Amino acid sequence: MTELLKILLEQLLIPEIAVAIRAHYNATGKMPTDQQVMDALALDADAILAKGKAWQDAHPPKP
Amino acid sequence: MRNSGTRVFLILFALLAMEAALMVACPPPVSLKTPEGKAAFAADQLLIRVGELQDAAIAANGTIDPDTKSPVLSEATTRRIVQVSMIIATTLNPPKDKDGKIMPLPTGWQVMVTTAWTNLKVTLHPDEVKKLSVYIASIDVLIGALAPATGGVQ
User: Measured between alpha carbons, how far is B136 from B118 in angstroms, rounded to an integer?
Assistant: First the structure.
C-alpha cells in the first residue's frame, strides 16, 4: 500500500503539481523569458568581472 | 585548535558547498522557448557556480589558518582561480547590439569555457583541489551537462 502511494505520488501527483505551479508562474509572468535569462547572464558575468578585478587590484602580482 | 573565526568560516564554507552541490544541473524552465534562451540558462547556471568558486577562493585566501599561520588558500592559487573565473565570465558575457540590447551568446562558447576550466584544473595542487572539491565537482557536472542542455556543443 505504501509503495502504491509512493508510486502515485511520484508518477501522478507531483508532476501534476509541478505542471500547475509552472502554468501559474507562466501566466503571472514569474517564469523567466529568454531575454530575461540573457540579461541575468550579462549581470552575473559583470559581477564576477567586478569582484575579480577588485581582488586583483588589491593583490597586485609581486615582482 | 582552531579559533572561532576560522571555525565560522569553515562552517559557512561547508554550507555554501552543500548548497552548490544541491543546485547543480537544474533543468531549464519551461518558459524558455528558444535554443539561445536555453543556452543562456545553461551558461548562467555554470557562471553562478564559477562565481561561487571565485568567492570561496577569495574568502579562503583572506582567512588565516591558525595552525599554519598562512592563508587557507595561497595567493598564487587564488590568482589563478580569479583569472580563469574572469576569462569564463568574459566568454559568457553576452554581446550587446547597437541599442544596448543583450544578444545571444556566440557559437563556440562551450569549447572555450571547457578549455579554460581544464587548463585551471591541471595547474591546481591536489591539496587545493581537496579544499575546493565541492565547487570543482559542481562545475565539472555542469560542464559535462552542457551538450544535452543546449542541444549539442555549438
Answer: 11
Chain B residues in contact with A35 by the CB 8 A cut-off are 37, 102
Give the domain ranges of chain A: 1-31, 32-63
* Cell numbers standing for residue B132: 575546493
Q: Do B44 and B149 touch, CB atoms closer than 8 A?
A: no
A37·B41 Cβ contact <8 A: yes
ipTM of the predicted assembly exceeds 0.85 = no
Give the range among B2-6, B77-81, B88-92, B93-97 with minimum mean pLDDT.
B2-6
Residue B14 reports pLDDT greater than 70: no
- pTM listed for this prediction: 0.74
Among chain A residues, CA nearest to B38: A34
Identify the burial level of B148 via C-beta atoms within 10 angstroms of its C-beta, where 0-12 means exposed, 13-18 middle and 19 or more buried: exposed
Q: How far is A5 from chain B (nearest CA, A)?
A: 26
Contacts of B58 in chain A (CB under 8 A): 51, 55
Residue with cell 547556471: B45
Is B60 in the A-facing interface, judged by CB distances under 8 Å? no
**Interface contact B37-A33, CB threshold 8 A:** yes
Is the per-residue pLDDT at B19 higher than 70?
no
